[in-house]
Design brief:
Elements: H1 2-6, H2 20-48, H3 50-61, E1 62-67, E2 74-75, E3 81-93, H4 101-112, E4 130-136, H5 138-157, E5 166-175, H6 183-186, H7 198-202, H8 204-207, E6 212-217, E7 232-233, E8 240-243, H9 247-264, E9 268-274, E10 281-287, H10 306-309, H11 319-328, E11 338-340, E12 345-348, E13 351-354, E14 361-363, H12 364-370, H13 373-383, H14 385-394, H15 424-427, H16 438-449, E15 453-455, E16 460-464, E17 470-473, E18 478-481, H17 485-498, E19 516-526, E20 529-543, E21 550-557, H18 570-584
Parallel strand pairs: 2-8
Antiparallel strand pairs: 1-6, 2-3, 3-4, 3-5, 6-7, 8-16, 9-10, 9-21, 11-14, 12-13, 15-18, 16-17, 19-20, 20-21
Length: 603
């Protein structure tokens, strides 16, 4: 009886919980809810937010590939290429498709001429677009294609996955056929293929062209699906720039300054050739220079165009301004006016001004011929501060020439008279207390050669498309009249005397032609003090004096050795270079020795 009471009570089973139909119902309800959620999500994606998800899918699978435009050429006045682009390739490696990487990568290194293991140590399986090389030319690209085909055949025989592991992208490389000749003027490109200096920079918007584009579809592995290739817009090639530069004359000047560099080992040389009638720049060279094809060898200072950017005290070549001013104002005549040159020592404003030789009383022509500082200082005193300043400005000093934009061109230094010292009126007339750029000096001399008209230097002649059609052409631009035709002829007559046997520029004579020119030996000033033994030797002139075809200036910075005067450094260089230029231009010699042209003064 006790055992009955000790047994636990039996629980009664719930027939509903153990019913399979109930469990199935619960499962169906949950499945229904799940499908409802999925359906609502699909409706949200397909109908409500369709554009957003379509854009995301396109971004993942569609790729915009840029098609490079061919950069326009830079040509000289006779269509000789100075800068041009040619088709090259970038080569990329797909690491996922490379089989037997150790062997394959080493073989690629040999084909590309790279150091052993230079690629292998950077190889990553997951890198699907590793840049192997750029600037690869057609011949090398074909070798790589043959290598790839051979590898694919080899892997198929070994039953290895065989898919293309190299891709080739078209690009254009820039070359400069003339190397360092006119390099500062032509310029170069930066790492992104954009003009960084010279013509390349100033006219980049014309040269660069417009790139095209191609839309391609890629699969989940990043491979292009050629059948789904989309929109393609072809690139528009850049325009060609025709310069006024003459590559023959440029080469003559380059060889000429090479001889000067070899003989005198100066710190630098600048040479400019201009047509005085049109303002066309025929040549522009400097030392040191650089080769834009050899970027790794550049010294950045040598890429600056010093003809535009570096002003210096001109010294006696600036005397052409003082001479022109006093002749225009009719303060002196060439052969009937005389000035006492004080036997080589003139005391004014508490300082003594010296001549290189002691001279007594000289005519204005003789003062120009001998380049007497004292004679020109007294002309400046007669002229006065305001008139001297006005003529210096009229000749283009103190302002940019505007020849080429974006080059950091300097305006030079020409202070207004209110900032002059008591000595300035005797120093500026001889080319001191003023700083000018070579291009300013050339166009000032060209104004005398061009009947008194100041003309804007011109370097771009035409812009043409790839078919040769002229898009834009440029004409000579006369800025203003500086002096009268009569004054220009008188000044020319005096400058011809400089090249006479008794003149400072006797060694600048060119056989068969009458040369007009001026020497200049400027002592360099550092921190306001003139330094003994440091000079800039210059000569500037034009020929034929009767009907000038070109102006040539040579400026030599600190020639080393016993000779530093312009008469012994720059003048002889002018003679040789000018003679070769005259021959290149087919100028007819006058068959008379160089001599002064006498012009009778108006009565």
């Amino acid at each position: 009886m006790n055992s009955v009471f000790l047994q636990p009570p039996r629980t009664k089973k719930n027939p509903q919980k153990d019913n399979p139909r109930v469990r199935a119902l619960i499962v169906f309800v949950l499945l229904g809810l799940g499908f409802t959620v999925i359906s609502l999500r699909l409706i949200y994606i397909q109908l409500i937010n369709h554009e957003k998800f379509m854009s995301m899918a396109t971004t993942i699978h569609s790729v915009r590939k840029m098609l490079p435009a061919k950069r326009g050429q830079i040509l000289d006045c006779k269509n000789v290429p100075l800068a041009q682009s040619f088709l090259t390739y970038r080569v990329r490696l797909d690491g996922m498709n490379v089989q037997e990487p150790t062997v394959t990568i080493k073989q690629l290194e040999r084909i590309l001429g790279l150091k052993e293991d230079s690629l292998l140590q950077n190889f990553r399986r997951m890198d699907r677009a590793y840049l192997l090389a750029k600037g690869i030319q057609e011949e090398k690209m074909q070798s790589l294609e043959e290598f790839q085909k051979g590898k694919l055949r080899e892997w198929k025989k070994k039953r290895l996955p065989a898919q293309n592991f190299l891709t080739f992208e078209e690009e254009y490389s820039r070359i400069y056929p003339c190397g360092r000749e006119a390099a500062q003027l032509i310029g170069y490109l930066d790492e992104n293929g954009k003009g960084a200096s010279g013509i390349e920079k100033a006219l980049n918007s014309f040269l660069q062209g417009t790139p095209g584009e191609r839309w391609i579809e890629k699969d989940v592995f990043g491979k292009e699906i050629a059948a789904y290739r989309g929109l393609e817009v072809k690139p528009i090639d850049g325009l060609n720039i025709i310069l006024t530069l003459d590559s023959v004359i440029q080469h003559i000047v380059e060889e000429g300054i090479d001889r000067v560099e070899k003989e005198f080992s100066p710190n630098g040389i600048v040479a400019v050739v201009m047509n005085p009638k049109t303002g066309e720049i025929l040549a522009m060279a400097q030392r040191p220079s650089f080769d834009p094809n050899k970027r790794q060898e550049w010294a950045i200072a040598s890429t600056r165009n010093k003809s535009l950017t570096d002003p210096v005290e001109p010294g006696s070549i600036f005397k052409i301004v003082t001479l022109s001013a006093v002749l225009e104002e009719k303060l002196f005549s060439l052969d009937d006016s005389y000035i006492n040159c004080e036997n080589g020592a003139f005391f004014y404003g508490g300082k003594i001004l010296h001549d290189s030789h002691p001279y007594g009383i000289l005519s204005v022509r003789e003062i120009v011929m001998k380049s007497s500082n004292i004679g020109f200082a007294k002309m400046g005193l007669e002229l006065g501060e305001n008139r001297l300043y006005r003529y210096a400005r009229a000749f283009g000093f103190g302002e940019q020439s505007g020849m080429l934009s974006g080059q950091g061109e300097s305006s030079g230094i020409l202070y207004p008279p209110r900032l002059w010292s008591k000595l300035s009126i005797t120093r500026i007339p001889i080319g001191q207390e003023i700083a000018v750029t070579p291009i300013q000096m050339v166009r000032a001399m060209a104004a005398i050669a061009n009947h008194g008209y100041l003309i804007k230097p011109m370097i771009v002649k035409e812009i043409r498309d790839q078919q040769g059609k002229i898009i834009q052409s440029f004409s000579p631009n006369i800025v203003r009249r500086v002096v009268s035709d009569r004054t220009a002829k008188l000044a020319t007559s005096a400058l011809v005397s400089v090249i006479s046997p008794k003149g400072t520029g006797a060694k600048a004579a060119v056989t068969g032609f009458t040369v007009a020119g001026k020497t200049g030996t400027a002592q360099k000033a550092i921190h306001g003090n003139y330094i003994k033994g440091k000079y800039i030797s210059s000569f500037i002139g034009f020929l034929p004096a009767e009907d000038p075809e070109f102006v040539l200036m040579i400026m030599v910075d600190e020639p080393h050795g016993s000779q530093y005067y312009a008469a012994s450094v720059a003048a002889p260089a002018f003679s040789v270079i000018a003679s070769d230029i005259a021959q290149a231009l087919n100028l007819t010699p006058q068959c008379v020795p160089a001599q002064a042209i006498r012009i009778e003064k108006n009565k």
